[in-house]
Design brief:
Helix 9 (about 155-185) crosses helix 12, helix 9 packs across helix 13 and helix 12 runs antiparallel to helix 13 (about 235-245). This protein has helices spanning about 1-10, 25-30, 40-45, 55-65, 70-75, 90-100, 115-120, 130-140, 155-185, 190-195, 205, 215-230, 235-245, 250-255, and strands spanning about 15-20, 35, 50, 80, 105-110, 120-125, 145-150. It has 2 domains: about 1-150, Rossmann fold (3-Layer(aba) Sandwich); about 160-255, N-(1-d-carboxylethyl)-l-norvaline Dehydrogenase, domain 2. The protein has a 5-stranded mixed β-sheet, with helices on both faces. A two-stranded parallel ribbon has the order 1-2. The chain is about 55% helix and about 15% strand. It is built from 14 helices and 7 strands. The chain is an alpha/beta fold.
């Protein structure tokens, strides 16, 4: 995701400084005009806007809060945007630390996945002050077609969790519906065309065969943890988690 986003920023003429645990990821963008940095602090020290695109909450905290991290090196007025899918309280905690240094930390949850990043058509679900998000819009426009402020810091992650529940629920339901159709003599390609016209139409079905299934387990774990924190029961999410863990790209492609 970071490599694709970085490529769009370079194409749009933005000065870009990058770091990564994978040297090849750095080299790929440096070859296109980016400047390399040894660590997140090196990125923050050279940037007005820092985009954090890592895997999980622990990595977000390390990138932002650890010695040599973004907060330590960021100048006053710098904006740090958490693009990873993480817990809302991870964002609010980092934002509180940022305020003590006059650094704005917002959450900018990425929707539409790797394909959206590759085509520059991401949806950004943002949590933070409206004025701060507006300052970022010119840069965001390089890789996103839709930038929506949901509310305060962390609210973008809430919206992303809700989006992910619907994404994986639809995808698994689509899989089972297409399996049923084939078993009863209607081929998936025909059935997808028919279903696209009815009340069962959904985006995962329209994009069938393009899904890469990178993060369903993580996404549903986050949703379950948030539900537990809120004291509510989400039985569909509980049932969906093991179903998605056994779902593979090959199974989806078998139903093209």
């Amino acid at each position: 995701m970071g490599r694709a986003i970085g490529g769009h920023l370079l194409e749009a003429g933005w000065a870009l400084t990058v770091t990564d645990v994978d040297p090849e990821a750095i080299e790929a963008l440096v070859a296109r005009g980016a400047s390399p940095a040894d660590d997140p602090g090196g990125v923050a020290g050279a940037s007005d806007l820092v985009l954090v695109a890592v895997v999980d909450d622990e990595q977000v905290r390390r990138v932002i809060e650890d010695p040599g991290g973004a907060l330590e090196a960021a100048a006053r007025g710098t904006i740090i945007a958490i693009c990873s899918s993480v817990r809302p309280d991870t964002c609010t905690s980092s934002a509180a630390l940022g305020r003590a240094r006059d650094v704005e930390v917002i959450d900018v949850a990425l929707v539409r996945g790797e394909r959206g990043a590759e085509t520059g058509e991401l949806l950004l679900l943002c949590g933070g002050p409206e004025a701060t998000i507006d300052r970022c819009r010119p840069a965001f426009a390089a890789f996103a077609t839709d930038v929506v402020r949901v509310g305060g810091v962390g609210s973008g992650q809430v919206a992303k969790a809700a989006n992910n529940i619907l994404l994986w629920a639809c995808l698994r339901a689509d899989l089972e519906a297409l399996r049923l159709g084939r078993a009863l003599g209607v081929e998936p390609a025909t059935l997808r065309t028919v279903l696209a016209l009815g009340s069962g139409a959904n985006r995962p079905l329209a994009e069938w065969g393009e899904h890469r299934l990178r993060w369903p387990t993580k996404d549903l774990e986050v949703a379950s943890a948030l539900a537990a924190d809120a004291g509510i029961d989400l039985p569909l999410v509980r049932a969906l988690a093991p179903l998605m863990s056994e779902t593979s790209v090959d199974q989806l492609r078998e139903l093209l």
